[in-house]
């Protein structure tokens, strides 16, 4: 393989070392392998890169043939945000479900099993958990990805998740620092602003991050949010006051600081990814996450060259870039040692697939425990094939629209003949649902009803016409429970749908 830079060009190698790029396809392209050989220390994986556990294990082995200690990162929160099971839905409930159960041992066990599965496929850095306190119920991007709205609850489950994940040899990445919960803006699209004082910040947003640091979280991910109380001009990802002053100096964090995706509009539309990456490293970040939307060699070269140019011009101190690269390599060494310590038993076994008995059991057990059922007087389970009306909002980018969700498939297994239809803000009238359902009993499935007036209006009319309707809330259960049965799953993972179907049918 041809190496385009010399080993003595340490600035260029350090610039490559701090990047965490993505790519397209289910095998590593030549340009990516070449970059790993030239100094790239990390690669980010997304749903588009994963077809099966065996394929993923082969892909990570391909990367490690170039560099044995390469960091292979993934955004695998479980619950609504899954890359391992992007086409079928997660075998693990997400954070809100775990927070609703509030059993830290269960959270630790779920995270350990998820980490075991990642490690078996060669993944050693997980961009999880979300430590955001979901204090604004209208939050369009966090929601069920948070353990809840109580800082202490979020803190204890964040710590348990970090401990469980890292016990399996997979580095945790606690996010989104200093907290993305108190906003009704999605930073994938715009720059959120959190107008709270320092007292509130310390009493609420920072509580889970302190717990994660105490639990030994190997990395922390910054948020693209503006927090004027600390920095009135730059978002956290680009702010020395927040990354260096608050996280490093005040909170004493010494692990790796990773940015959220730099192609998100909060950064790319305001600073551009090249300028944003230079400012992030200068502010105290150590690794640049890019690749969810930009996944090509040109992006890597642009960012590498921007960092090198900033060092050459004196804008970015060479020692700051070197320190960032050293922190990346230090984490890579930890993951390598963890893999070696685990021995050959950590390798993926032929035939392993989503749904193996061990992780299916812990995930489904957790999902069942998270279900809350509210019954109206005289309400009965559904015993014959119903009509499932999925009232479906537009998915946020973090969750994506590739992953199926709902209860129809699971009800169809329990009650053959179940039929279903999908309704959105344009088609989701009660009249349309009633016409489609006919005489069948209706199961209306919603996601964050409280954030979607059209959804609430459709439910009002449905329940007036058909009081025996079952309502399944698979988002944040903020609205008052209603319906003959109201089933709150606290998330839309595949196992949450299975648990809901059991509750609906009285199994």
Q: Within the largest sheet, what's the order of strands?
A: 2-3-4-5-6-7
Number of helices: 17
What integer value in Å does the Rg equal?
23 Å
Tell me, rounded to a whole number, the average pLDDT: 91
Could you describe the largest sheet, including whether it forms a barrel?
A: 6 strands, parallel
- β content, as a range? 5-15%
Low-confidence stretches: 1-8, 345-359
Q: How many distinct beta strands?
A: 14
Shape: globular
**Gap between N and C termini, in Å?**
59 Å
Counting copies of identical and different chains, the oligomeric state is single chain
Fraction of residues in helix: 40-55%
Structural class comes to alpha/beta
Describe this structure in words.
By secondary structure, the chain is an alpha/beta fold. The protein is 42% helix and 11% strand. It has 17 helices and 14 strands. The strands form 3 sheets. It has a 6-stranded parallel sheet. A 6-stranded mixed sheet has the order 9-14-13-12-10-11, sandwiched between helices. Strand 10 (387-391), helix 14 (408-414) and strand 11 (419-423) form a beta-alpha-beta unit. Helix 5 packs antiparallel against helix 13. The chain is globular. The model is unreliable at 1-8 and 345-359 (pLDDT under 50).
Short characterization:
Helix content is 42%, strand content 11%.
Secondary structure layout:
Layout lengths: L9 H8 L1 E2 L9 H9 L3 E4 L7 H14 L4 E4 L20 H7 L2 H17 L4 E2 L24 H17 L3 E7 L20 H17 L4 E4 L17 H11 L5 E3 L6 H4 L4 H11 L4 E2 L7 H17 L4 H25 L14 H14 L1 E4 L11 E5 L16 H7 L4 E5 L6 H8 L4 E5 L6 H13 L4 E4 L11 E4 L5 H12 L2
Parallel strand pairs: 1-8, 2-3, 3-4, 4-5, 5-6, 6-7, 10-11, 10-12, 12-13, 13-14
Antiparallel strand pairs: 9-14
Helix pairs in contact: 1-11, 1-12, 4-13, 5-6, 5-13, 6-7, 10-11, 13-17, 14-17, 15-16
């Amino acid at each position: 393989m041809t190496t385009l830079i010399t080993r003595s060009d340490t600035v260029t190698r350090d610039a490559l070392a701090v990047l965490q790029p993505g790519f397209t396809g289910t095998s590593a392209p030549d340009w990516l392998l070449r970059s790993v050989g030239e100094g790239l220390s990390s690669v980010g994986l997304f749903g588009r890169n994963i077809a099966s556990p065996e394929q993923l294990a082969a892909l990570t082995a391909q990367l490690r043939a170039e560099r044995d200690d390469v960091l292979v990162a993934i955004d695998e929160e479980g619950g609504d945000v899954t890359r391992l099971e992007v086409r079928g839905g997660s075998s693990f409930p997400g954070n809100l479900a775990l927070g609703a159960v509030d059993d830290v041992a269960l959270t630790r066990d779920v995270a350990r099993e998820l980490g075991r599965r990642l490690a078996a496929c060669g993944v050693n850095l997980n961009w999880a958990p979300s430590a955001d306190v979901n204090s604004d119920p209208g939050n369009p991007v966090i929601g069920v990805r948070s353990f809840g709205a109580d800082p202490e609850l979020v803190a204890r489950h964040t710590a348990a998740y970090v401990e469980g994940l890292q016990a399996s040899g997979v580095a945790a990445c606690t996010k989104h620092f200093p907290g993305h919960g108190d906003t009704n803006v999605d930073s994938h699209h715009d720059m959120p602003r959190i107008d709270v004082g320092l007292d509130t910040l310390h009493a609420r947003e920072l509580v889970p991050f302190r717990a994660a640091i105490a639990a030994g979280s190997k990395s922390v991910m910054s948020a693209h949010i503006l927090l004027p109380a600390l920095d009135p001009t730059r978002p956290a990802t680009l702010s020395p006051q927040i990354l260096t002053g608050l996280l490093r100096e005040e909170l004493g964090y010494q692990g790796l600081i990773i940015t959220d995706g730099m192609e998100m509009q909060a950064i790319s539309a305001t600073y551009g990814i090249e300028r944003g990456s230079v400012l992030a490293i200068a502010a105290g970040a150590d690794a640049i996450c890019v690749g969810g939307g930009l996944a090509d060699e040109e992006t890597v070269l642009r960012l590498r060259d921007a960092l090198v140019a900033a060092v050459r011009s004196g804008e970015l101190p060479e020692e700051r870039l070197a320190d960032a690269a050293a922190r990346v390599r230090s984490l890579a060494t930890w993951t390598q040692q963890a893999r070696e310590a685990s021995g050959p038993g950590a390798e993926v076994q032929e035939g392993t697939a989503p749904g193996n008995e061990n992780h299916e059991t812990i995930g489904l057990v957790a999902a069942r425990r998270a279900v809350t059922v509210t019954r109206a007087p005289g309400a009965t389970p559904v015993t014959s094939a119903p009509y499932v009306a999925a009232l479906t909002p537009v998915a946020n980018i973090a969750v994506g629209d590739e992953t199926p969700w709902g209860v129809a498939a699971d009800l169809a297994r329990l009650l053959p003949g179940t039929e279903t239809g999908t309704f959105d803000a344009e088609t989701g009238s009660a009249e349309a649902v009633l016409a489609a359902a006919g005489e069948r009993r209706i199961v209306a499935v919603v996601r964050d009803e409280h954030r979607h007036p059209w959804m609430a209006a459709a439910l009002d009319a449905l329940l007036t016409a058909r009081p025996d309707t079952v309502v399944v809330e698979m988002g944040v259960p903020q609205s008052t429970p209603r319906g003959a049965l109201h089933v709150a799953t606290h998330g839309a993972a595949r196992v949450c749908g299975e648990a809901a179907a059991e509750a609906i049918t009285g199994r």
